[in-house]
Amino acid sequence: MDQEWTGGSVTALWFQRMSVLLPCDASSLSTKEQHWSTRLPKARSEVFIRSRVWMRACLANCFNVSPQAVPLQAPPGEPPTLPRGWGFLSLSHCPDALLLGCSKHPIGLDLERHDRMIPAASILQRAYSQEERERLQHLQGEDLRRAVLKHWLIKEASIKWQQGAIARDLRFWEVRPGMRSVVHQRSHQRLSAALHAHDSWEFAVVATDQQLLQSIRLFLT
After folding, report:
1. Which residues is 191 bridged to in the sheet?
2. Less Cβ crowding at N or C end of the chain, within 10 Å?
3. Residue 37 CB neighbour total at 10 angstroms
């Protein structure tokens, strides 16, 4: 299906706490989604159904159609997509929250709890560029953890924009000073980046067009 973008001129984000029980009514799912859900283990099947029902409800509000009419393609374990003309999606989740983005142009998202404990010094030495290491090496303790986590958010969001893989692409994305842009060291692709905080979570959004990051609407569902 091909149509003009009807989701508005802004990037729309939907945030959902996992502590709020999502609906598990599979009636709004596509035939394929219902089939996929039957082939998953019970616990994973329920998560799959709830997440797809939630995504369809969010996008239905964006496009002013019924949840069943949203042409969502989201097989288990794969990034969600929409057909040409409907816009671009990005999905991120951590153990207790979900974040879905939809925009006229490709975007990438990454979501984490702001208190997530990580081996910051090890990550910095193993996976970050020399310029990033030199910029952050003077930090210690909590300051280092937070800085490394913020850089990680931007890097992983960039990998999602790229439709790449962490193991292959993490070391090539370099966050620039100020954390408002990121550059791929091989392709020289530059993306604009924005960091946001909501309650106990932080998230990064990246896109080629800075305007997409300046006109974000966040919906709490």
Report:
1. 182
2. N
3. 18
Rounded Cα–Cα distance for residues 84 and 105 (Å): 11
Q: What is the pLDDT of residues 98-148, one digit of tens each?
A: 999 999 999 999 999 999 999 999 999 999 999 999 999 999 999 999 999
Phi, psi of 68, deg, nearest 5: -65, -25
Cα angle vertex 86, ends 40, 82, to 5°?
20
Using only the alpha carbons of the chain, give its radius of gyration: 18
Q: What is the model's pTM?
A: 0.91
pLDDT tens, residue by residue, 160-187: 999 999 999 999 999 999 999 999 999 9
Q: Where are the alpha helices (DSSP H) in the chain?
A: 31-38, 42-63, 120-127, 130-136, 141-162, 166-169, 210-214
Residue in this structure with the two tokens 């303790």, named with its chain if needed: 141
